[in-house]
Design a protein that fits this description.
single chain; mainly alpha; 5 helices; 0% strand; 168 residues
Length: 168
Amino acid sequence: MNSRNIEYLWRDVPPPFRSVARWLTIVQVVGYTTALLFVLQTTHMAPSGISDRYRGSDSTAAEGAMQFAKSYAEMLTLTHTHILSMAVIFAFSGLGVALCSRLSPRLRRFLIVEPFVALLVSFSSLWLVRYVDPRFSWLLELSSTAMAITFYLQSWLILTELHLVEQK
């Protein structure tokens, strides 16, 4: 048998590693959800809130707190920390999806790749919002939504698959 045809699935993984995967997935869901709550708090998950957060808000506006435009250094720090940490999160969730037996190989590949693409689009659009045009906040909102939906779907698939394996 060709080594490229070998498929590893959750049922082949020893129970202690499945426990680590289960708890890692649960903790990642809690952390990701907390991050989304922070985004809700700071931007109201609206294009205008996103624009205000990164470009600064109108200092003459009577409503809401005044926000200052993010500096180049702040943008670099934000991008650096988020891309690296989220890449690790998506690497773990992608590995978990790769081990799911109930998905077609094509769907697995899509679910593994999509959050990485959305991550790059999201942070590219963040820079476009800050330095080009506030209307790019729509692209940021769209790509971030796709990323979140995929992450929660990945997590649900992993936890469901681990539960089913444990039931056998």
